[in-house]
C-alpha cells in the first residue's frame, strides 16, 4: 500500500510543481460587460425607501441581462473565441481554479491562445435576477403559491448527481473528481432561479447575441446549460462557429429544419464515466442515450457531430464535473484538438473566402 | 459649440487610444477561492427531487461563504494586497471595466504591481445566498411575512443615491460619471439579500479571515460595505494593514477600546462631490459629517486617519460610483499614493523588524 500511494503522491507532487513553474500569464485585453437586458417597470412604489430615495415615483429595474468576463491572449485573434456557460446551481466559478487549487479550463484555454468568455447565466450570480415576485409575496399582493422554486443542490444531491461515488461519502475507486476537496465544490453551489425566467430562456438569446458580437464564437455548455449552445443556435446560428455540449439530456424531437440549422455547426458532445453506477440516481444513462440519438440525427442531416464518451476512449473515472477532475487539462486538450480540427480549419477556410 | 465639442472628442479619443496602446497585462498568478462557509442542515427532505436525487435523505447546504477572485502581478510580493468589496445591489463588477468601457480599478491596481482580490459579498453574486426561507414560505411551513426584504435599486433610485444629477435624467453640469452609459450600470445592479444574513455579517468575518490568510491586506469597502473594513478589523485586526472606506455612513459611537484597535490601522476615507445637491435625497451630508467625526475620533485615539474630500482638493463632479467616474484612474492614483505613504512604509518597517 505504501509504495502504491507513494507513487501516487510523487506523480501528484510532480504535477503541482509543473503547474507552479508555469510561465506568467500574458493578457492582451481583459474585462467584463453585459449582453442583453431590458427595462421592467415596477408596478407600484414601495412603502419603504428601499434604495429608491424618498419621494421618487415607483421605479424601473433591468432584468434578463447576462454578465460576461473575458480574457484575450496576445495571439487570441488567430483563434475562435470560446464562451463557457456553467450548469445548475453553479456560477462561472465552475471553470476557474478547481476545488483542490489546480488551474481551471478558463486559464488553460487562454494559455492555449484562445480568447475565453465566462458567462454567468441570466438569474444567477453577477447577472442578478428579477426579485419583484418575492417582494410582491412579502407585500401580500401575490399569494405564496406563486413563489418560484429556488433550486438548491444539497451536498448529498451533488455527490449523487455529479457521480462522485456509489453512495454519499463513498468515492468510486477510480474517481477523478478531487473528493478530498469536495467541501470547496459545495461552496460553489448557489441557488438557481431559472424557474423565474421567461421562455425562451434569455440566456439562450444572450449567448446567440454574444456569438454575433464576437464575430463568431464556440459556445460551450455543461449540464443544465449543456444544450444551451444548440438552443442559442436555433435562435440565431449566424455567430455560432462550434458547439461543445457536456453531460446533459439532449433534445431528440427537433424538426428537420432545426436539424438542418444545427447540421451546419460542428458539434462535440462529451460524457464521463460511471453513468449508471450511482445507487438511486439513474438519469445519466438516459441522458447519454438521448445524446447519442441527437448526434446521429445531426449527422444524418449532413452535420459534423461527435460523441466523445471518455470511458470508451479508455479514460476512466470522470465525474460530471469533468472540468474540475484531476485529469481536467487532459480533457481540455481533447477539446482543443477537436476545435482545431473541426472548427478552426473551417474558420480559416471561411476567412480565406 | 462645434469647436468646443471637437476638442472634447479629441481629448476623449486621445485617452481611448492611450488605453488601447497599454502594454499587455502580465499576471504571475490568478484564480478564485472561497473564504468561510458553514454547513446548514435542511429541516426536511423536499417533496420533489430538487437536485437531491430521489431516495436521498434530506440534505445539507453550505451558507455564508465568500467568493474571492484574484490576480497577482510579477512584482506583487513587494506590495500589500488590496481587497475590494462592492456596495449595495452590486457585485465585484463594480471594480472591473467601467460602464463606458474604460479600465477599472481592479486591473489598474494590478498594473501598479498590487495583488488585487475582489470579493462578492456573502449572499450576493457568486457567493450565493441561503434560499431555505423562500422555499419554506413556498411550502407553507413559514408565513409570507417572514420573507426577507430583497433590496433592489431602481434606475431612479440609483440616479439619486449615486448622485448623477439633481433630478432623474438630468446630470450635473460637471458630472464625472459617464451618464451616457448609465444603462450599463443599471445592468450591474442586482438584488441584495443582506437582510437574510446573521449578525455579525459573515462578510466582515470573512474579510478579516482573508486578511489573515494573505498575511496582511488592505481592505477597501464602498457604500454599503464602506465601513466593512472597520467592522472586519474590530473582529480580528491582526491581518488588516490598512483601511480604505469610500462613501458611507460612519459609526460614531465606538468604544474607547474599539477606537484603540482602529487607531493602529492607517485609514483613508474618500468622498466625492455634490453631496447635498440631489433633490429629495439628503443622506450624503449626514454620512459625510459622521465620517469626519469618525476620522477625528480615530486620530484623537492616536491613529492615522485621513478624510479625502475630493471637491475640497479641487477635484469636482465626482459621483458615488467614483471608481467608475471618468477620472477614476486619477482617484486610483491618489489612493495608491496614500497606500505607499501610510501603509507600505510601515509595511517595510515591519518586515525589517
SS class of chain A = alpha/beta
CATH class of chain A: Alpha Beta
Q: Under CATH, the topology of chain A is which?
A: Rossmann fold
Distance between the termini of chain A: 61 Å
Multimeric organization: homodimer
Query: What value does the Rg of chain A take, in angstroms?
Result: 22 Å
Q: Which percent range fits the helix content of chain A?
A: 25-40%
Summarize the biggest pleated sheet of chain A.
8 strands, mixed
From N to C, what is the helix and strand string of chain A?
Answer: HEEEEHEHHHHEHEHEHEH
Largest protein-protein interface? A-B, 84 and 84 residues
Give the overall average pLDDT of chain A.
90
CATH architecture of chain A: 3-Layer(aba) Sandwich
**Number of helix segments of chain A?**
10
How do the strands of the widest beta sheet of chain A line up side by side?
Answer: 2-3-5-4-6-7-8-9
What is the gist of this entry?
Chain A is an alpha/beta fold and 353 residues long. Helices cover 34% and strands 17% of the residues of chain A. At the A-B interface, strand 1, strand 2, strand 3, helix 3 and helix 4 of A face strand 1, strand 2, strand 3, helix 3 and helix 4 of B.
Give a written overview of the molecule:
2 copies of one chain form a homodimer. By secondary structure, the first copy, chain A, is of the alpha/beta class. Chain A has a single domain, classed as 3-Layer(aba) Sandwich (Rossmann fold). In chain A, 34% of the residues lie in helices and 17% in strands. Chain A has helices at residues 2-20, 105-111, 132-139, 155-161, 182-188, 202-213, 228-235, 256-263, 283-300, 328-352; strands at 25-27, 29-41, 60-72, 82-85, 116-119, 217-222, 240-246, 267-271, 305-309. Chain A has an 8-stranded mixed sheet with strand order 2-3-5-4-6-7-8-9, sandwiched between helices. In chain A, strand 6, helix 7 (228-235) and strand 7 (240-246) form a beta-alpha-beta unit. The interface between A and B is large, with 84 and 84 residues.
